[in-house]
Amino acid sequence: MNVQIQDPVFAEMAAATERALWDGLPELSGREKALLCLVADICQQTLGTPFERHVRLAYDNGLSPDDLRELLRFISYDSGYPAAASALDRLTALERDLGVSPTGAGHEVNAHGTGSPLPPAMLQSVRDLDEGFADYMALQSRMRAGMQMLDVRERAFATMTVDVLFQTLEESFSAHIGRALGAGATPNQLRAVIRFSALFGMTKAWRALIVLNNLLNNLAPNPTPDPQPAGASGE
Fold first, then answer.
1. Which domain of life is it from (predicted)?
2. Which residues contact 157 (CB under 8 A, 6 or more apart)?
3. Is the distance from CB of 133 to CB of 171 less than 8 angstroms?
4. At a CB cut-off of 8 Å and minimum separation 6, what does 40 contact?
5. Which residue, among 1, 143, 18, 164, has the nearest Cα to 81 in the 3D structure?
6. 138-158 in b/e burial notation, b at 16+ Cβ within 10 A?
7. Is the pLDDT confidence value at 229 over 50?
């Protein structure tokens, strides 16, 4: 990623980390890794040099300005709207500096409709906790239901990373793991997502791997290990 760091010892540590997590995880594509870096920047509000580097990296891996704006819209649900709005301001400034611009493509925001794409049992469990919060969750899920620039697997990996960073490793983490598996991700790819998140906090990733393995064991008491992927993208 051509990281320019003034401290030579820190630069050596960063380079070794990059080899381990960027070059050493063939289960994930470069596009997916760039998206997950941006998710972490939004959640942790690292909107200076790291965010600029990751935006450039995203463009280098085939993501468009419209794709990045959809990521911000999508992740606002979990990162919180203020954090996503700050990232949008920074992204807009970078677009000007880099001479790129989004086309304005988006999706229909169903803010005034009814219903929710969430599983009924999940929504009912939330409604049993608090009626108003269930209505808010239904609204948020409904407003982003029409997004199509990022695929289901990418969105699931993004929300898994949010769970690791915020340590929300119960209901939401289980739902996002299920969504990733439903989109065709393998257990090895799920573990790779968590290992990659160690870049943003190793002890958080450690705890998430414990929870992930428990979830996978409950889904398949005697799981067969995935074969190692032959290609570099893992897709």
1. Bacteria
2. 28, 32, 35, 36, 180, 185, 193
3. no
4. 46, 161, 165, 197, 199, 200
5. 143
6. bbbbbbbbebebbeebbbbbb
7. no
Assign residue 169 a region (left: φ > 0; alpha: ψ between -120 and 50; beta: otherwise). alpha
Mean pLDDT of 81-107: 95
Q: Are 32 and 61 in contact (CB under 8 A)?
A: no
Domains delineated in the chain: 8-100+149-219 (1.20.1290.10), 114-146 (no CATH)
pLDDT digits (tens, 9 = 90+) for 161-176: 999 999 999 999 999 9
User: How is the chain split among helix, strand and coil, in percent rounded to 5?
Assistant: 65, 0, 35
| Token pair listed for 12 | 């050596």
Exposure b/e, 39-60, CB count within 10 A at least 16 = b: bbbbbbeebeebbbbbbebbbe
pLDDT band at 194 (very low <50, low <70, confident <90, very high): very high
